[in-house]
Amino acid sequence: MIQIVKSSELEKDWFSGRTFTGTNEVVQSVIEDVIQNGDKALHLYGEKFDVSSPKDFLIPESELKAAAENLKKHSPDVYDAICYSHELAYKFALKQKDSFDDFEVELTPGMFTGQKTIPVEKAGVYVPAGRFPLVSTVVMTVTPAVAAGVKEIVLCTPPRVHPEDKAAAEKAGTGIPGKPFTGGKPYADEGIMAAAYICGVKKCYACGGSQAVAAMAYGTESIPAVDVIVGPGNKFVAAAKKMVFGKVGIDMVAGPTEVFIIADSSADPAWVAADLLAQAEHDVVAQPVMATDDELFARKVSDEIEKQLVLLSTAQTARASIDSCGKIIVCNSLKEAAEIANKKAPEHLELAMKEGSERDDIQNIVCNYGSLFIGHYAAEVFGDYAAGLNHTLPTSGAARYTGGLSVRMFLKTVTTLRAQNGSEGMKKSAAAAGFLGDAEGLAAHANAARIRL
């Protein structure tokens, strides 16, 4: 059962970012192996960790297209949902891109400073395919790259046994964890391949884990090196992204998912419980939290969680999360709840409150979150799937200093300078640069400025 505590009982450590370590040495050795041995290392780790280690890694575009057509035929609702999600995400990303203006301005006579926004040339996307292959992650990671104008998008996802190889795999007793089928055709989860095709991916590789991150960062014979890598993954993938940062840009090092709901007594306990469980089912260490100033409402939500849990196919995972990481906080006021939320800096923050001045006040107070969901009808799961927002968001308190994945990740903001010979601005800048060069003991700097006078 979820823990109910008073705000005064919260421990200082609860506000600290959660870390899950113990993978660094393993991941570092994987990265070094991929750098030294390229595709040979990828095959080795595929045989060690995956259900399939294909002969080649690049999945033909025809396979992606076939997966999309198959999905449209047999699961048209899912196909349409992916298309709708991609459409909204693309529109939102384009609007974000429009906010980054190119300009040139004459700050002083004859001195023109400018800004340009340029897309990176190659983007790498990692899409996990564990217990629940994350089809929506394809939309959320690929779409902003497309909107940014990235020329080449490389997607890596764990391999699966190709349908044409399943009979051979079954006969050999392979194609299962610990006994991979080797040497077959490259293939991946069909939902992920379909979503990749819908979103415009041309290069999809059947390669997963930290070795895939290393391959995208450094390049191998088959997988090209990219400029940025985005996307979620397990602790090994997260550690790999952290280690290759600097060689490439990364979106963030994400941890287990979190939701923080500020609720008043007008909220429906069943709705709030459903939102808490939606996060809890992700992972046994997911962190579902609610804060309210109404203790009776808190108990109603707790009871509702128990009622809904028994109906979930994911009850085992959700139960572990609720019992070990879940929390309902009874506060002295909703303002205090907002202050606690700011200190916690959650990935998702919901204001399950009726419309009015109090909700407006709380909305103005909160400032540390990945995404904010305002009002009873703005379900957090809408942001996960189909509202235009990106669901790749900062966790473990990182929302104090950054937002989530956006088109901005795939854009470089660079600056330009143009000077007119003999202009007043050029002369003043040359004189100032000369004096500052002298002050810093950099004679060549000073000379390079004054030589133009």
From TrEMBL:
Query: A Gene Ontology CC term for this entry?
Result: cytosol
Entry keywords, A to Z: Metal-binding, NAD, Oxidoreductase, Zinc
Biological process terms from the Gene Ontology for this record are:
L-histidine biosynthetic process
What InterPro entries does the record point to? Answer: Ald_DH/histidinol_DH, Histidinol_DH_CS, Histidinol_DH_monofunct, Hstdl_DH
Q: Does the keyword Repressor apply?
A: no
Record: residues binding substrate = 257, 279, 282, 348, 384, 440, 445
Q: Where does Zn(2+) bind?
A: 279, 282, 384, 445
Annotated residues for binding of NAD(+): 126, 211, 234
What is the active site of this protein?
347-348
UniProt GO molecular function: histidinol dehydrogenase activity; metal ion binding; NAD binding
Xref: PROSITE patterns: HISOL_DEHYDROGENASE
Name the cofactor(s): Zn(2+)
Q: How is the co-factor bound, per the entry?
A: Binds 1 zinc ion per subunit.
Which protein family is it in? Answer: Belongs to the histidinol dehydrogenase family.
- From the Swiss-Prot or TrEMBL record, give the protein name: Histidinol dehydrogenase
Q: Which organism is it from?
A: Treponema porcinum
